[in-house]
């Protein structure tokens, strides 16, 4: 896999860990703003951490990457919709939008849709 794809996988995974581990207080506030229950927040967090772990493992085992990248893109699309629902300012959309695009890039590369 090209270095740019591996780098994208690492950026996605590290971003998820930073946000969901070290900035968890922000996540709690955002999910309350969206009107989502704690159980949904916990399930989303567990899914994102698991998917991020698979993206890192996929550096050595590329067969693991396509599905986690697509699922991460789906979760980032849901984040975009949540921002739209509460009418957040545009700068709140940017991180999840970038992770959505990176996830789609990784998925496309692993699906063979991009030239090596």
- How many β-strand stretches? 0
Q: Over all CA atoms, what is the radius of gyration? A: 14 Å
- Helix/strand structural class: mainly alpha
Helix content: over 70%
Approximate strand percentage: under 5%
State the distance separating the first and last CA atoms. 8 Å
Shape: globular
Taking the sheet with the most strands, its summary is: none
Poorly predicted runs are none
Count of helical regions: 5
SSE pattern: HHHHH
The chain-level mean pLDDT equals 96
Oligomer description: single chain
Short description, anyone?
The chain is an all-alpha fold.
Summarize the helices and strands and which ones pair or pack.
Layout: H1 3-22, H2 24-34, H3 38-57, H4 66-85, H5 90-110
Helix pairs in contact: 1-2, 1-3, 1-5, 3-4, 4-5
Write up this protein.
The chain is mainly alpha-helical. Helices cover 79% and strands 0% of the residues. Helix 1 (3-22) packs across helix 2, helix 1 packs antiparallel against helix 3 (38-57) and helix 4 runs antiparallel to helix 5 (90-110). The protein is globular and about 40 Å long. The N and C termini lie close together (8 Å). The model has no long low-confidence stretch (mean pLDDT 96).
């Amino acid at each position: 896999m090209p270095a740019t794809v591996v780098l994208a996988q690492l950026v996605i995974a590290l971003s998820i860990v930073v946000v969901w581990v070290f900035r968890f207080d922000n996540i709690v506030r955002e999910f309350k703003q969206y009107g989502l229950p704690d159980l949904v927040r916990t399930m989303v967090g567990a899914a994102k951490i698991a998917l991020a772990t698979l993206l890192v493992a996929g550096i050595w085992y590329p067969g693991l990457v396509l599905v986690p990248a697509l699922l991460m893109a789906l979760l980032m699309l849901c984040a975009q919709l949540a921002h739209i629902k509460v009418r957040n300012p545009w700068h709140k959309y940017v991180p999840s939008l970038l992770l959505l695009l990176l996830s789609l890039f990784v998925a496309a590369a692993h699906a063979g849709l991009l030239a090596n």
